[in-house]
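Journal club side-thread
Mid-discussion, someone asked how the predicted structure for our own chain would compare to the paper's figures. Pasting it here so we can look after the session.
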Amino acid sequence: MQRIYDFVKANGAMFIATVDGDQPRVRPFGSLMIYEGRLYMCMGDYKQSYKQLQQNPNMEFCTLAPDGRFLRVRGVAVFDRRPEAVEAFYAHDPELLDLYRNQGLNLAVFYIDKGYAEFQGGSEEFLSYNF
């Protein structure tokens, strides 16, 4: 899990895919943390991505390094409504305070359950594992 986190942080935005009815939807995301031994992400509870994950919690994200290495992660989004999980995200990424709480918006946090990660490194390196 630490390798996933480190790779994302080193390479900027992730692109997360959700399902809207029978259509895929992809958008950039920037927030990720490890909390209580799980990989967590967040979004506003007013966003379409939140509604889509409520209807179908299957999701996938990927990120790409400038040298062509990439990471792909898929799993099931499990929303964590505990206030301490939300506060942990605000502590981890204080910029979220201005984007959400200070504007009266709610931050929804979730962890990835039944996770599967694939790393494609240089030339022939390929690693995959479940988490």
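Post-session note: The mean pLDDT is 95.
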